[in-house]
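Worked problem 6 (solution included).
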Amino acid sequence: MARRVPLHDPTTVIRYLEEDGGVILTDFSSIADVQTVNDDAAPYIHAILEDRARRSLPRETSRVTRLFGRSKTAREGWLQQPNLHEVFNHFLRTESIPYQDPNSIKISTDPILSSAATLDIGPGVKAQGLHRDDFIWQQTRTTPREKYSIGSDVSMGLLVPGVNTNAYNGATLFIPGSHLWDDSRPPKAEEIASAEMSVGEAFLFLGSTVHAGGANTTSQSRPMHGFFYCRSFIRPEENQHLWWTKDEVRKWSSAAQKQAGYLTGSPFIGYCDDRDPVDLFRANDASVE
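Solution. The predicted structure is:
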């Protein structure tokens, strides 16, 4: 089983992540907020299922993308918790001093949103293959490590179950310590742990940790809300900027705008017309529009 720790103890959360690669947060959300996010995703899940039924396709997994904008509770509540930011920043904040000028100030950039989605795992869906999430950025490991090194990860994932999860409905599987393996190390069945969770808990893990979604052998679906972050200088998995209107983004908190990439992550990365993208939303100059 995955180890558990309250999110209000970020020091221990960080230690468990460095040791195991994943940890269950026991006080992540209220049950009411989980239900609200379930409700936020439900219309989109229903539309996907209706479309599949109309085309006589199996139910399988319904993927509701763009959850960051579609759920205010997730965006402004779950993802703005200071202790969660502390953990994300510990592993994914990037700091450097430019070489060309020894008097330069240190540049520090925080992680940004890579993707956010609800995965509704239908009855009978088979388990995923074991994998590392950071493979999408072509991360490779040629030598194993005895101890975790800060700066070695480029991404992290946060999974929030919409229902209680267990071995029968496909609780997330992960291998403690696999974030220290090289790519030649094959997993053994006895090494696989189950991140079984109650509603209100969340599973936080490093992009280098070997994991998979379990098989759903029950007659009910298993919704899982996933939020994934990456370092500020790499390309996010989901290109969501094309979807949100200016009016929608204006309503977000500045912290959420920053996480989604609407504020520059360094002196230069992400600028639009030589300024923060969000400044264009606020401009009154008709020529900007």
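Discussion: Helices lie at 10-20, 31-54, 67-70, 72-77, 82-92, 246-250, 254-259, 277-282.
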